[in-house]
Design goal:
BirA Bifunctional Protein, domain 2, five-stranded mixed sheet, globular, 3 domains, 515 residues, alpha+beta, Herpes Virus-1, 23 strands, Rossmann fold, seven-stranded mixed sheet
């Protein structure tokens, strides 16, 4: 099965099992806007909870905030969003499709990266444990040739972006013979800048005086509250402020399901440090964040760091954590050293001091900031695309297939499924009594419809890590069967031991301690 077909299956699975629905579907939907269903909202909340615990509860020098979506429009002028929050846009004259010019170039580079990865995989298969990846990358002629092409494209693109040379970006697209991904046409318009902010009105009269913007990021709500938070939480630099919230961007090309949407949710943390120490903390948070991702247990080879070719106007260092989605390596989280740009600009435009008095240095200064910013919806897609598996099973000489979501157990939307073997003989009543007790400890689902094997498959597709089956023996020995999703093994345990046993299995504390 191709990666593209696999991705289509994941999208269909999301709708069929209550993870993600097209928004406004009965009215033919709304482009690049989605709703989260019963299982989707549970998974989303569990991801948020895990991030919040790892970022705020585990770090004594990080606190939280929840700022408003509407803010004074002067904030966006000060932050540079009004003047600089643009993407390079290009249209294809034949297909009438619109694209981000930088994404077209990045996707072209990704083709060379895929060739290198394919050569590496061939080398591993040929030489096995003796294969030296670093030496291969440094000496193989095909790899060196493709890497040289990547470096040349990136260097040329960087020069164009640094100089805001839109004509140069188009020339690069033409020279690389990049075609419209859908039509194959190479008939392009000129590149132009496109501001991504949504505007709205607050007053009853539609004039500029009442014009507001829907926030394109959550960070500015943190910056303008810097002193409020610092003073009320009595934090000393270095310390961080974390926030989870909605943001809105008028994306030129919103595609790839929930990967790029116009309305999305961010999990951000701004870490305030002494000037001159920002690079040390930048490296610190890069390591902390990649460890958080890898703690989920997915293939570590699917993660990589990507340093920005062109830095944003506020940054002196920036890197993305990229994940190998079904459509290739794409950004899921950014770590940025934002210098003192944001606090400095807000101090300048507001006329209010945003300085920290450092008792150790006996001086005041505008702190520098290291940011970690993760897209919650992208993280959601990462978990689902990594967890989705189609397995071939052999039993009694027969082959069958099961679709299973191997979601990390502590993130699973349904943690336990309570299943009476049959509805008669008092098993349903016994199972419901167990459900009534367990629901105060775990997110449970009771299911008595269909044969037990079919119910197992249904829970596999939902991603439920543990199925609790009550059978006729349960009425006599007060024991039940726990079925494990990933291995499909079954274990008999006492009902009185069930809560403690499941708390161990579903514990997030041990994961957090390893970070």
């Amino acid at each position: 099965m191709s990666q593209q077909d696999n991705f289509k299956d994941i999208i269909s699975h999301c709708k069929e099992y209550g993870y993600v629905f097209p928004s406004s579907e009965i009215y033919d939907g709304l482009a690049a806007v989605y709703d989260y269903g019963p299982n989707g909202v549970e998974l989303k909340n569990n991801i948020k909870n895990y991030w919040w615990k790892a970022m705020v509860h585990v770090n004594e020098n990080v606190v939280g905030i929840d700022s408003a979506i509407f803010m004074n429009p002067k904030i966006w002028k000060a932050s540079g969003h009004v003047d600089n929050f643009n993407d390079p846009l290009i249209d294809n004259k034949d297909s009438k499709k619109r694209y981000r010019a930088d994404v077209l170039i990045e996707d072209h580079v990704a083709k060379y990266e895929a060739k290198i990865a394919k050569d590496v995989e061939k080398g591993k298969n040929r030489f096995g444990d003796q294969f030296d990846v670093e030496q291969f990358l440094a000496t193989n002629p095909n790899v060196l040739r493709n890497q040289a092409k990547i470096d040349e494209i990136n260097q040329r693109f960087k020069i164009c972006m640094d100089n805001e040379d839109l004509a140069g970006i188009k020339a690069l697209i033409v020279d690389l013979e990049i075609a419209d991904p859908e039509s194959g046409s190479k008939n392009w318009t000129d590149v132009r800048q496109f501001n991504l902010m949504f505007s709205t009105q607050m007053s009853s009269v539609a004039d500029d005086a009442g014009k507001l913007f829907l926030r394109p990021e959550t960070a500015q709500g943190i910056f303008v509250n810097f002193l409020n938070v610092q003073k009320t939480s009595r934090q000393k630099v270095p310390f961080g402020i974390a926030q989870i919230g909605k943001a809105f961007r008028n994306e030129i090309v919103a595609r790839q399901f929930i990967f790029r949407m116009k309305e999305f949710e961010q999990m951000e943390m701004q870490f305030f440090v002494r000037p001159g120490t920002e690079m040390e903390w930048y490296e610190h948070w890069k390591e902390k964040r990649i460890n958080w991702h890898k703690s989920l247990g997915f293939d570590a080879n699917n993660y990589r760091f990507h340093d920005h070719i062109k830095l944003a106007h506020y940054a002196n260092a920036a890197a993305d954590i990229e994940f190998n989605f079904p459509f290739g390596f794409k950004e899921v989280e950014g770590i940025h050293s934002r210098t003192d740009f944001d606090l400095g600009r807000h101090e300048e435009h507001s006329g209010k001091k945003l300085r920290y008095f450092d008792p150790e240095l006996n001086e005041s200064y505008v702190p520098y900031v290291v940011e970690t910013s993760i897209g919650l919806d992208r993280m959601f897609l990462l978990v689902l695309s990594s967890s989705y598996q189609v397995e071939q099973l052999e039993q009694d000489g027969k082959t069958s297939e099961r679709v299973v979501l191997k979601i990390p157990s502590f993130l699973a939307p349904v943690q336990l499924a309570i299943l009476p073997l049959v509805k008669r003989d008092g098993l349903a009543e016994k199972a419901m009594a167990i459900f009534e007790d367990l629901k105060y400890h775990f997110n449970c689902q009771y299911d008595e419809k269909d044969a037990i094997g079919r119910r197992y498959r249904r829970q596999d597709a939902i991603g439920t890590p543990y199925c609790i089956t009550i059978d006729h023996d349960s009425l006599n020995d007060d024991s039940l069967t726990v079925r494990y999703r990933d291995s499909m093994e079954q274990k008999r345990i006492k009902i009185s031991e069930l809560v403690d046993e499941m708390k161990k299995e579903l514990s997030v504390e041990n994961i957090l301690k390893q970070l």
